[in-house]
Design a protein that fits this description.
The protein is an alpha/beta fold. It is built from 25 helices and ten strands. The strands form two sheets. A six-stranded mixed β-sheet has the order 6-7-8-3-9-10, sandwiched between helices. The radius of gyration is 31 Å and the shape is elongated.
């Protein structure tokens, strides 16, 4: 006899229901509801084009406080463009751009850039540091973005704890976020963490760009359930959705459908079926209304799509009144003030948090840290084996070559870790910089502060391995300090290369252009005097040249024929000292200026 099927362990409808006891004791969402100003956003006839290519064409819609709305549409319909414009994340006044239309928030007509600080924006990609935890991310976001009494340590801890509970992140609160190389929290937990990072500021609205990308059905459902909870506590939620399931589509209060850059429907989710029936395209009982609507707008010809759009325009008053008109009718001449801009915290506060996070990212990444020192050690052993005893022989050319190769190894060893760092962290920096958490200078200065001791240790390791085996004769401390300075210059150059491109592949392709010429000007392969006069000046832009010259002076000036070799390589001590300032300026300022 077959056993009876057991009842489900957890009722999906109850899994994310807010605990009344938690509500009573101080849920973060309850605090959000109390602090909400019940704002709404409305837009009418938004038109946006770039270089005569129209992306949005007279788009109209709106989202109210306590409402969760979705923007549907096929690929290329303008969903993300509309969301970015509404969130103030797109430059509508750039070269070749044309923008028109009316945007209002809380009844006040505003410019898109004016609402940026009042809207929490969650990007499609979960741009979060891999070696930090959800709790640490929420704490840092709170400390750098909140003002007044909310930034006291006790208050921040209380709010973060409540928010972690409301977002169902208690179990993974102290687990690393992870990345493609390091296993961490799940995709749904990452998305909820991204929501929490923005939600900690108690925003009036929250916009999400494709929040369900890469998530399985249950993870997607949990993310949208959190968004539904936000809406139920007075926060206006607007997100772009490519193709929602029936369960997720039913969670939304309003549906805004775009096709070819135009609004083809804007109204209640519950009215989609009845509207499609009125225009002669009824939804089958077995079909998802969202799928049917998307399939319809994609299979219609351009002429039929125009007729479909005009049908919605004619029936617009029966589905939803023009939102801006509603607001204007209810204003009675009182226009709320536009949102105010939130200023950044003090420079020292930004720097301290960034240095702390950079240290955690460095030392928690044990694999990267291990390989950095292992590679340095292996290269040091290789150089030591090849040039063993070269300092005790009379072959000055080999002696000079040993010093040059040590410095070349230091340069590439320091440049490689930093070369790909910024391209990989670029989405994180853009998100946090756009949220006004910190400025450019403290960000790069924090990286320099953390990189300096790491560079010193790797330089020290190189000479601890090679100095005595090679039989070098120069001052050990001076050689280490020269290698350290070169290491910082190489790291700054690598960071500059990484900042100048948009992805890691471009940084790798551009790196030889920055580092190979430096080897050519060391004097190893060709004497400086033989380089054409038109190109000889480039030696003064090469940090490696200064390091080689300094180390050669330290190592060879007291040998029997050392002065002759230095002269043949155009290494003049007085001239070198006069140009040393250029090197230090290049090494320490290049990254910070970016």
């Amino acid at each position: 006899m077959m056993p009876e099927a057991s009842a489900p362990l957890v009722d999906p409808e109850q899994a994310f229901k807010v605990d009344p006891k938690a509500e009573k004791e101080g849920s973060f969402l309850r605090q959000l509801s109390e602090s909400s100003s019940r704002n709404s956003m409305e837009w009418s006839d938004l038109t946006f084009s770039i270089k005569d290519k129209k992306i949005l064409d007279r788009v109209t819609g709106g989202v109210s406080a306590g409402e969760m709305a979705c923007i549907l549409g096929p690929s290329g319909a303008g969903k993300s463009t509309l969301l970015n414009i509404l969130a103030g994340r797109m430059n509508t006044a750039g070269a070749g751009c044309s923008f028109s239309g009316t945007l209002s928030m809380g009844g006040a007509v505003v410019k898109p850039v004016d609402v940026r600080s009042s809207i929490a924006y969650v990007m499609q990609e979960d741009a979060l540091p891999a070696m930090t935890t959800p709790r640490e991310l929420l704490e840092m976001s709170a400390m750098l973005r909140l003002n007044g009494e909310d930034i006291s340590p006790a208050k921040v801890q209380e709010q973060v704890t409540h928010l972690l509970q409301d977002l169902r992140l208690e179990k993974c609160a102290d687990t690393y976020v992870g990345s493609a190389l390091f296993k961490g929290i799940s995709g749904g937990e990452k998305k909820r963490t991204s929501v929490g990072v923005e939600l900690i500021t108690k925003p009036k609205m929250i916009f999400l760009d494709e929040p369900l990308s890469g998530l399985d059905s249950y993870a997607a459902w949990t993310v949208m359930q959190v968004c539904k909870d936000l809406a139920s506590h007075g926060c206006a939620v607007l997100c772009t959705i490519h193709q929602p399931s029936s369960e997720i589509f039913e969670m939304f209060d309003k549906c805004i459908c775009l096709a070819e850059g135009r609004t083809v429907y804007c109204g209640s989710v519950n009215d989609v079926g009845s509207y499609m029936g009125r225009v002669g395209l009824p939804v089958s009982k077995q079909h998802n209304p969202a799928d049917h609507l998307l399939f319809t707008v994609q299979r219609l010809s351009k002429t039929d799509l125009e007729e479909f759009t005009e049908s919605w325009v004619k029936e617009e008053s029966n589905i939803v009144l023009p939102p801006i008109q509603q607001k204007r009718e209810g204003q009675n001449g009182k226009v709320p003030s536009a949102p105010s801009h939130v200023s950044r915290k003090a420079f020292s506060t930004q720097l301290s948090f960034l240095v702390s996070r950079e240290l955690k990212e460095t030392f928690r990444n044990k694999i990267g840290l291990f390989f950095r020192f292992v590679v340095t050690g292996v290269m040091g052993c290789l150089f030591a084996a090849i040039f063993a005893g070269v300092g005790d022989q009379d072959d000055l050319r080999s002696h000079f070559g040993a010093v040059c190769n040590l410095m070349i190894g230091v340069m590439f060893g320091s440049a490689q870790p930093l070369l790909l760092q910024f391209p990989l962290e670029r989405p994180i920096f853009l998100r946090e910089y756009a949220a006004n958490m910190y400025g450019v200078i403290p960000y790069f200065l924090a990286k320099t502060i953390v990189e300096a001791p790491m560079s010193f240790l790797t330089s020290l390791e190189t000479f601890l391995i090679s100095y005595w085996i090679m039989g070098l004769q120069g001052n050990f401390i001076y050689l280490v300090l020269v290698a350290w300075a070169l290491s910082m210059a190489a790291a700054s150059t690598a960071l500059m290369v990484g900042c100048s491109v948009a992805n890691a592949q471009s940084a790798q392709e551009l790196a030889p252009l920055m580092f190979v010429p430096q080897i050519l000007f060391t004097g190893i392969f060709v004497s400086i005097q033989l380089i054409p006069q038109a190109l000889r000046w480039m030696q003064y832009l090469c940090a490696l040249k200064y390091a080689v010259n300094l180390s050669a002076i330290i190592e060879l000036k007291d040998t029997q024929f050392g002065p002759e070799l230095l002269k043949s390589q155009s290494i003049i001590q007085t001239k070198l000292v006069s140009m040393l300032g250029c090197w230090w300026g290049f090494s320490w300022v290049s990254a910070c200026l970016l």
